[in-house]
Design goal:
Length: about 325
């Protein structure tokens, strides 16, 4: 089996990008070690702090954020860093070629119940000039690499540099990431969907109708039975989609009118959309393609609908219907 380093060399990417990806991978090994030790290392539970999103931070959120931040600042290839856990962008090396956006521990609410968590990252080219928040405000199409590390029964790295999606598994004996799937592909059709059903009453009419039709199964307009899955960690749900197809969505809702969207564009939606598109799937907000969005701020949130191409298209058809018109009597 190819190691991660051997695979990156075969992709003929730049030495600096290869170095950066290896730094991210090596840091994820340390994070995996911290996650595995859990309560034994005293890293579980919540702090008294909130992040910029207004969410209570877990101890491991802070620990993993610092691990990644320190490693990237020392790497020499990184100009600046943006993290879900940082209020502002962080300067790294003035000569760095890249910007890195990351969610250090996606699904951290799962930590205390020993369920799936992961690290999501996105790599952008660093523009010339002074480092500011504006430096990061690039559409997802500008990404040169993206991926996630899933900390589960096995620690797995899904990676794209724009040449398809490769999946690597961490060998616990050698501590090396080994290639276990050289070309991940999402099936065009699916019978699985992932959504937080507890928010159903808050969704827009298109998503209400779409999900209702899925739940009707064979007796509904889709004439097909669907199963629902929900891990409550985007990294886990997207991993399932990459492995066996499906549609994952965290749609617009009106539960809190000031926060109609849940997922972050720069740290979650863009890198996952890059992976999904490279594996043959699609990723949209319901109204526009995620990777074509021009960001307006680093902590921007968006609605997300991604996965099997034909099913995403079907969901988007519902979003083209005008539900404001009263039905004819």
């Amino acid at each position: 089996m190819q190691t991660l380093a051997e695979n990156l060399t075969s992709q003929a990417i730049s030495p600096t990008l290869e170095k950066l990806i290896l730094t991210l991978a090596n840091t994820s090994k340390e994070i995996s070690h911290a996650v595995r030790h859990g309560a034994l290392a005293g890293v579980l539970g919540a702090t008294e702090q909130e992040n910029v999103q207004g969410e209570t931070q877990k101890k491991l959120d802070i620990i993993t954020n610092d691990m990644l931040k320190d490693a990237l600042k020392a790497d020499g290839t990184v100009r600046g860093i943006a993290s879900e856990e940082e209020d502002y962008v962080v300067e790294a090396d003035a000569n760095g070629e890249f910007l890195v956006c990351f969610d250090p521990l996606d699904g951290s609410s799962n930590i205390d119940i020993n369920s799936l968590v992961g690290t999501i990252f996105s790599v952008l080219p660093a523009p010339a000039g002074e480092l500011t928040e504006k430096s990061f405000l690039q559409a997802g199409r500008k990404q040169v690499a993206a991926g996630y590390v899933l900390y589960g029964p096995s620690t797995m790295l899904a990676l794209t540099t724009g040449q398809g999606v490769q999946l690597f598994t961490l060998n616990p004996e050698t501590n090396e990431f080994l290639l276990t799937n050289g070309a991940m592909a999402i099936s065009k059709d699916t019978g699985e969907f992932a959504i937080n059903m507890s928010n159903q009453r808050f969704w827009e009419a298109p998503m209400q109708t779409y999900i209702s039709d899925l739940l009707l199964g064979k007796i509904g307009p889709r004439e097909k039975s669907f199963n629902m899955r929900w891990i409550a960690a985007m990294v886990g749900d997207v991993h399932r989609v990459l492995c066996r197809g499906g549609i994952f969505t965290y749609p617009t809702d009106n539960k809190n009118p000031e926060k109609p969207y849940k997922l972050r564009l720069m740290y979650e939606a863009n890198p996952m959309a890059f992976l999904v598109e490279q594996a043959g799937g699609k990723a949209s907000t319901g109204y526009e393609t995620i990777m074509d969005i021009q960001p307006t701020e680093i902590h921007q949130r968006v609605a997300v609908i991604l996965g099997s191409a034909n099913e995403v298209d079907m969901c988007l058809e519902y979003h083209q219907v005008d539900y404001s018109e009263e039905p004819a009597l």
